[in-house]
Amino acid sequence: MSSTAGLVIPCKVAWEAGKPLVIEKVEVAPPQAMEVRVKIKYTSLCRTDLYFWEAKGQTPLFPRIFGHEASGIVESVGEGVENLQVGDHVLPVFTGECGDCAHCKSEESNMCDLLRINTDRGVMLSDGKPRFSIKGTPINHFLGTSTFSEYTVVHSGCLAKINRLAPLDKVCILSCGISTGLGATLNVAKPKKGSSVAVFGLGAVGLAAAEGARISGASRIIGIDRNPKRFEEAKKFGVNEFVNPKDHDKPVQEVIAEMTNGGVDRSLECTGNIDAMISAFECVHDGWGVAVLVGVPNKDAVFMTKPINVLNERTLKGTFFGNYKPRTDLPSVVDMYMNKELEVEKFITHRVPFSEINKAFDYMVKGEGLRCIISMEE
């Protein structure tokens, strides 16, 4: 790969909340200690990008380069980076794995102390400065990745080195939402073959959770969503029964309990809605049922249920990024796809060139499709 050090590189910049992204010429500085500069090949739009672009419910940080679900190739590495070299194929991840903290050393956690998600930080850790600028004006980073740029600078602990044979225009979606839902099922809920699983919310993350249930061999996969238009597509992911809470005059957990002779073996809540979280917990069978919370609620939301539901041996768990350690575990998720164990293509419903990135936002705002792949070289 030819050197691009010091060159002016075009990328997308969001100048104002909710306004269309515009093409700007941006200086992308070389990587500093423990950093890597990556040539982004393909990126995708995740709902988190949309949420912060709209700047609803959080402190706006503009101008900013969004994007955190992507694939790329290492262009250059900074001082101290030993696990990556020029030419490696990588997935940038919004959370990281430093390898040294208590969480990274634990087999039970992926919540790195150093590189855990921070939505308010717009700079790099090493010197507290951004690597993006326009004519001397600094441009903020997003989730430590900022993949809506032809080149970006990422901490080496937030890059998963993957199989070079994996198609980057497909596995890019494994760097966030799909792995979150998939891992929530495979790593946390762990349904047994022939078991029953309820999935609350049939967006991309929920369908990834259903895909995990399909891979696990669950015999009944019940999809719960208030939008019946999602039911037909969900069949591709193994969902074989559907419940729309609006069709019933009783709590949906009671409906599911009646359908399953006391409750499902496992449930996954993928919306972040508190009522859905309560339903997901209360719809699992006493004695062995496990409910996993995947969706992110409002920070001030309160979860309430009767203590007897816990005493009756129902288990409530939470998960962050599907309990995957980015550097250690994501390569194996890519290998699952390469070995035809995981079907990725069915999540990809749209493709657009980089110059038409705003179409991806339009698709998501309108609720059309699951994932839109943005080609950086078109």
From TrEMBL:
CC per GO annotation: cytosol
GO function terms (MF aspect): alcohol dehydrogenase (NAD+) activity; S-(hydroxymethyl)glutathione dehydrogenase [NAD(P)+] activity; zinc ion binding
EC number(s) on file: 1.1.1.1
Alcohol dehydrogenase-like C-terminal domain segment(s): 204-336
UniProt feature coiled coil, ranges: none
Principal localisation: cytoplasm
Key words of the record: Cytoplasm, Metal-binding, NAD, Oxidoreductase, Zinc
Reported cofactor(s): Zn(2+)
GO-annotated biological processes: formaldehyde catabolic process
Domain Alcohol dehydrogenase-like N-terminal: 34-162
Enzyme's top EC category: oxidoreductase
Subunit structure: Homodimer.
Family: Belongs to the zinc-containing alcohol dehydrogenase family.
Protein known as: Alcohol dehydrogenase
Species of provenance: Prunus avium
Gene from which this protein is expressed: LOC110774577
